[in-house]
Structure formats: C-alpha cells, structure tokens
Amino acid sequence: MRKLVQAFLVIFIVSLALILFVNHLNASQGYTGGNTLTVYNWGDYIDPDLITQFEEETGIKVIYETFDSNEAMMTKIQQGGTSYDVAVPSEYAIEKMKEDDLLQKIDQSKIPNLKNIDERFLDLPFDPGNEYSVPYFWGTVGIVFNPKLLGEREFHSWNDLWADDLKNQILLIDGAREAMGFALNSLNYSLNDTNVDHLQEAKAKLQELQPNIKAIVGDEIKMLIVNEEAPIGVVWSGDAADMMWENDDLDYVVPEEGSNLWFDNFVIPKTARNVEGAHKFINFMLDAEINAQNTDYVGYSTPNKAAMALLDEETIEDERFYPSSELTDRLEVYENLGKKMLSYYNDLYLEFKMHKK
After folding, report:
1. Spatial separation of the C-alpha atoms in residues 292 and 298, rounded to whole Å
2. Which residue ranges of the chain lie beneath pLDDT 50?
C-alpha cells in the first residue's frame, strides 16, 4: 500500500512539473490567457505585417488560423475545439450564427474607430444595429478573363461561359452558393431561390457546363489564372483585383443578369476567451491608415470611408470593384436559407462535382 501511495505521489509530482514547465514555456512565448488572441479568418485575407504591428503595439500574441468556407468555419466554432476570439464570417453565416447562439454582442463603446465605417454598410438586414458584427470587406462574384488568350472575347452574361469553343478553359472557386448562385442567375432566378424545380434546373445547367470546366479549386485559382494556365475564372472580386495586379492582361466583369453582393464582418464567438483583446484587434483594423494598408494588400473593397480617403483615386474610381448604384441594384446578398435548404444546395453542388469529367 505504501509503495502504491509513493507511486501516485511520484506521478502527481511529475505531472505538476510538466504543467508548470508548459505554462512557463507558453508565458515566455506570450501565450498566456489574457495575452493571446486567436483569430479565425479566410486565407490570404490580411496583411501579415499588420498582425506583427498589433502584437508590438499591444503585447498581445496573435494565433492566426484560416478557413476556406463559411460552412467549415461555422462547424468548427460550433464544435468548440478551439476558443476563437475573432472570426470573419459572411452575412448569411452571421445570421445563422446568431440563430445558433454562437456569437456575443459587440461593445461598440470599445470600438471608437467604428465611426470610420460608411453608413451604407451599417445596420444591414443580417445584423440590425450591428449588435454582433463589424464590417471588414465587401465585394462581388464575377468573371475574370484574359482577352489576350481569348481572341479579345468579352463577357457580358453568365451564359457566355457555356460557349462551345470554351472547352476546358474555365476555373471555378469551390463554393456551393457561388456555383449554384451563378447558375441560378444565368436562368434569371434569384441566387436565394428555394424552388426545388428551379434548383434542379440550375444543377442540370451546371452539368452542361462540365466540358468547359478545367478544374474546381481553392485559393490556388489566383496563381493559375495569373500564370495563364486557364483564361477564365469565376471568382470573388478581390481575388480578381489581385490577379489583375499581377497580370495586366486580365479583366473582370459582373454579368448583366446580376450576381452576389457579399459582406464579410468581424464577430466575437460566444466561446471567446479574450474578449477585451478581440475589441482591441477589431478597433485596430478599423483605423484609417491600418485599413488603407490592409486594403492595398488584400485587394477587396473597403467599407471604411476614412481609409478610402487615403487610397489611390484610380482604385476607388474603378467601378469593377467599387460598382455604381445601377449595378449594385441588380446584385443580391446571400440569405440564410435555413439548415434544410442549405443542405439541399450543398447536396446538389456535390452531385455536380462528383460528375466532373
């Protein structure tokens, strides 16, 4: 019995020593609870230099993780394996996260730089009063193309993608709402359509596009288009801006039938451990100079009117990325379709992907 007690005592001492050592190691690297901020964002969606600057100014160590879809982000936050302090979902995801009680309210008194946001981007239907979210970037979904490789061809309609002479020429971003959305738009249906017959029609039309699709890819779409491994891509506007910066031959258009107008916002998940640090980070990113630098790096459209005053006129006057009200009136924001209908969209999209030739 005495030996058993001694054995347990040894195990306890060793375990305690290991815990103390790990805590010391984490502390020496800045990984203490109130001194750490875990940020969950889209890939390549922030200037890394700004993370370093935030760390130096605040003494808070940033742990930065990325996701490639709203659905993946929501699933991981709901599972609760990691306590994210800041996340960057899109509008329909914010609606769903509110419904699922995954978010905590923003304390706007701790974000004085909220005054820099253009009022057009505040108090939107997915978050009235911005109780749970703060604007980050916005943009569209459209077609990036290389006229040099296409005989000076232009694109005006989504239906132009179905041309017989475009076999194996198109890259698609890997997203159910994006793919189903442009197929629905090509049929003059809403990209939030819930009519089952319309959705089946959209999936069938996507299947007809298969011969023209070279690949369905993620972030690598930018490199592939820039390197002219494909002349056409269905992409988010900011990715198009990045590509056009790297390759002067590229152009971008939002088709005449309309498309998606999206908004990505900062939120603080319910399980956040460093709520104070989360507010500091959001306020830091809304600073005019910081936001202008980040906008130059990311390439998407900023809702920050104070930052826009610091950007090149050529940038903010480019209607491909800061579209006119005439165009935005034809665009739609993704709505929260509900769990059942969203699953149906995903199922149709997976069926389409599985039949990729």
Report:
1. 10
2. 1-8, 10-12, 14-32
Helical packing angle, 339-354 and 176-186, nearest 10°: 80
CB 180 within 8 A of CB 191: yes
Rounded to whole angstroms, the Cα distance separating 262 from 334 reads 7
- The token pair at 307 is 């930052």
**Which pLDDT score, from 0 to 100, does residue 314 have?**
87
Q: Given strand 36-42, what is the order of strands in its sheet?
A: 61-67, 36-42, 86-87
d(C-alpha 161, C-alpha 71), whole Å: 27
Tokens found for residue 245: 């910066």
**Helix/strand/coil for 62:** strand
For residue 13, what pLDDT is reported? 53
Model pTM?
0.79
Question: Please, is 34 exposed, middle or buried when counting C-beta atoms within 10 Å of its C-beta (0-12, 13-18, 19+)?
Answer: exposed
List, in sequence order, every residue forming a beta bridge with 327; answer none if it has no partner.
none
Angle between helices 275-285 and 48-58 (to 10 degrees): 130
Residue 330 is predicted with a pLDDT of: 85
The secondary structure element, H or E, covering residue 166 is none
Contact 34, 276 (CB under 8 A): yes
Structure tokens at 112: 């004085």
Assigned token pair, 349: 């999209």
State both tokens at 87. Answer: 């996340």
Note every long-range contact of 7-14, with CB atoms under 8 Å and residues 24 or more positions apart, other chains counting. Answer: none
CB 345, CB 180: distance < 8 Å: yes
DSSP state of 100: T
User: Do β-strands 36-42 and 86-87 pair in parallel, antiparallel, or remain unpaired?
Assistant: parallel
Q: 10: burial class by Cβ within 10 Å (0-12, 13-18, 19+)?
A: exposed
